[in-house]
Write a structure and sequence with these properties.
By secondary structure, the chain is α+β, with helices and mostly antiparallel strands. It contains two helices and nine strands. The protein has helices at about 5-30, 105, and strands at about 35-40, 45, 50-55, 65-70, 75-80, 85, 95-100, 115-120, 125-135. A five-stranded mixed β-sheet has the order 2-9-8-4-5, with no helix packed on it. The protein has a four-stranded antiparallel β-sheet with strand order 1-3-7-6, with no helix packed on it. Strand 4 (about 65-70) and strand 5 (about 75-80) form a beta hairpin. About 15% of the residues are buried.
Length: about 140
């Protein structure tokens, strides 16, 4: 192989490597979507025995998260982790699910009829996502 062929092969290799790196960066950006949270029903009856299924996807993998309730009663924010089973922890793909035993929040009037705002945060309480849970009388 002469010098011109070697230079051509080297340039081609660099170009292909650059395209591969750009493709991989595009894939990693596309998979780092905004976190999403869903609940298992569109609305729930205000009941002291209510259990609510909550799940999420697109969260940082294998990192502790917290669920906070913005309370209707006093405008406070409450970490509801003790009422979640199991404690939510995103798996290696960023997915998690839990059941919120919300009865005590109903009896203490920390939730109200209508939309109630909840927030998912990291362990340092930095917001990752927000969602609502709707209650009906």
């Amino acid at each position: 192989m002469d010098y011109k062929e070697e230079v051509y092969m080297l340039r081609t290799s660099v170009m292909l490597l650059s395209l591969f790196v750009a493709f991989m960066l595009t894939l990693s950006t596309a998979s780092a979507a905004d976190p999403k949270v869903t609940v298992d029903q569109p609305a729930y009856k205000l009941d002291k025995k209510i259990k609510i299924g909550i799940s999420g996807e697109g969260f940082p993998a294998d990192q502790e998260i917290r669920v906070l309730l913005s309370a209707a009663k006093d405008d406070g924010e409450y970490d509801i982790g003790y009422a979640l089973d199991p404690e939510p922890m995103p798996d290696s793909s960023g997915k998690w699910s839990t059941i919120w035993n919300a009865g005590r929040f109903v009896s203490k009037k920390l939730v109200k009829a209508g939309a109630n705002m909840l927030q998912i945060t990291d362990a340092d309480y930095n917001s990752l996502a927000e969602f609502t849970v709707t209650f009906e009388e």
